[in-house]
Design a protein that fits this description.
Largest sheet: none
Shape: globular
Number of helices: 6
Number of domains: 1
Radius of gyration: 17 Å
Length: 133
Amino acid sequence: MKQNFWKSGAAPWALSILRMVAAFLFMEHGGQKLLHFPPSAHPMSHLPPLLLVAGTLELFGGLFILLGLFTRPVALLLSGEMASAYFLQHAPHGFWPIGNGGELAVFYCFLFLYLAAAGGGPISLERLWRSGR
């Protein structure tokens, strides 16, 4: 019986926890860009337009993912943002992500791609809304 719980029962809950933790960590990148919080080792007083868009997507897209609102479309959008961040900012500095500093962008890209396919899990506002109908 326990083995069955871990095979099927725990997976949706683990998905929700993964979504929330990843979103919280992702929001910090947007917070650093837009709100200067948490403090950054390399603060910027003026953001170029592309980083302003990236910060907005990271902060508010991360909030939507954290709450489980519109998880699939927002995760797909954020996956695209991370792919473009990798190819625009990291790939020109070398092929391997560990060498060009892009491993986090690659990781978030595929994590959000997974969330776009899997959804938000049982702990989400989407699930709450669906159950209320």
